[in-house]
Specification:
seven-stranded mixed sheet; single chain; 2 domains; alpha/beta; 377 residues; 28 strands
């Protein structure tokens, strides 16, 4: 594929500050064994994109540990592969006044050397707050067929399927898929094409945007560039009709995780032909289900010990659930240790949490009870 990938790993960290206190949104765990970056990274690899730039900002040690050399995605290559792009400092004169990039456009300015040194004709950019399994080869073919300046990937959603508290970018088009307008809404009326933060353009076109932005002091890619030129430029929309979810809050994260308990959702995400979701391989022993344990309608990763009862929950690797414990509608991150006679409902535990005997903790699906990393309750 004649395209290079570019992934923003920190753009939406503020959406779920509890989960991104020690990590980027790209490395937030999901689905028992994955990280959020795995979905767009796998989509790129499955679409034969073999050179991918990863733009970082801060808190990216967990991301580096997860990606490693990229071998689990077949990206440990002499040519191409994963390129980690560290934070761009926007002020060099005085170290005390230096600051990290604050917008997508400033992040692109920091990655301009990587972009300019690539030989590929096209560039595909994406954020990490999305969950989908998309064929980007089809998106690029559509972009080339239409001769568009930029092609934006959208997903049609109705009012009932999105969170009312979140802000969405809705794209209006004509019958041929040409963009007419961008609007930011909290509750779109009826069905709307929601922008997924995936876009395709020529690499030289992006370099011209960056050069023009530096000259004029622009700082917002959407407001200063796209919205101001939507009438003159040829912007197109590719509507992705597969399963798609966006993580805009802790409530979104909880609900999107719970959707994995539905068979059809798991099939759409993980059983696409020639489009597997790849992740870091960890050779753990199989999960051990002890006498008296009971598990129903749950996703349980390897390396766990289950002595109690688990219902409608997501259990990550290495979790221990003690005897007499009941876990319902909860998400337990890696190496959580739950002792005996504990009751959990709508609880999210971060990594290495310990819950002592006899504790009873409960949240609600609209406000799950979160326990931070390394905390003992």
């Amino acid at each position: 594929m004649n395209a290079v990938g570019l992934i923003f790993t920190n753009i939406h960290d503020n959406n779920i500050p509890d989960l991104t206190r020690y990590r980027t949104i790209a490395s937030v765990p999901y689905g028992g064994r994955y990280r959020l970056i795995d979905f767009i990274l796998s989509s790129m690899v499955n679409s034969d994109i073999t050179k991918i730039g990863i733009i970082t900002h801060n808190n990216y040690q967990s991301l580096l540990d997860h990606l490693g050399t990229g071998k689990d995605w077949d990206l440990a290559r002499r040519e191409g592969g994963i390129k980690i792009l560290p934070p761009y400092i926007t002020s060099f004169e005085n170290a005390a006044s230096a600051k990290y990039y604050a917008s997508r456009l400033e992040a692109l300015m920091g990655a301009v050397n990587f972009i300019s040194r690539c030989n590929e004709d096209y560039i595909i950019m994406s954020d990490c707050d999305l969950i989908c399994n998309i064929d980007l080869q089809k998106v690029l073919e559509y972009h080339i067929e239409k001769g568009a300046d930029i092609t934006f990937v959208t997903n049609t959603q109705d009012r009932a399927s999105i969170a009312e508290k979140e802000k969405y970018t809705v794209i209006e088009t004509d019958d041929d898929g040409r963009v007419l307008d961008f609007t930011e809404q909290r509750t779109p009326d009826n069905k709307a094409r929601i922008y997924t933060n995936i876009m395709v353009m020529k690499r030289t076109y992006l370099l011209n945007i960056i050069e023009n932005s530096i000259a004029h002091g622009y700082n917002s890619f959407l407001h200063d560039i796209i919205m101001k030129t939507v009438k003159e430029a040829d912007y197109r929309v590719y509507n992705y009709d597969g399963w798609y979810a966006r993580i805009g809050s802790m409530e979104d994260y909880f609900m999107c995780s719970m959707k994995l308990l539905d068979n059809e959702t798991r099939k759409e995400l993980f059983e696409q032909k020639n489009h597997p979701i790849l992740t870091k391989v960890r050779n753990s022993v199989p999960t051990r289900y002890c006498d008296g344990s009971f598990v129903t309608n749950s996703v349980v990763a390897d390396g766990c010990v289950i002595e109690g009862r688990v219902e409608n929950s997501i259990i990550f690797r290495g979790v221990h659930i003690g005897k007499g414990t009941v876990v319902k509608n909860s998400i337990l991150f890696q190496d959580t240790y739950v002792c005996g006679d504990v009751s959990l409902n709508c609880v999210i535990t971060d990594k290495n949490v310990v819950i002592k005997d006899g504790r009873a903790l409960s949240g609600h699906e609209n406000m799950p009870f979160y326990i931070g990393k390394n905390i003992t309750v």
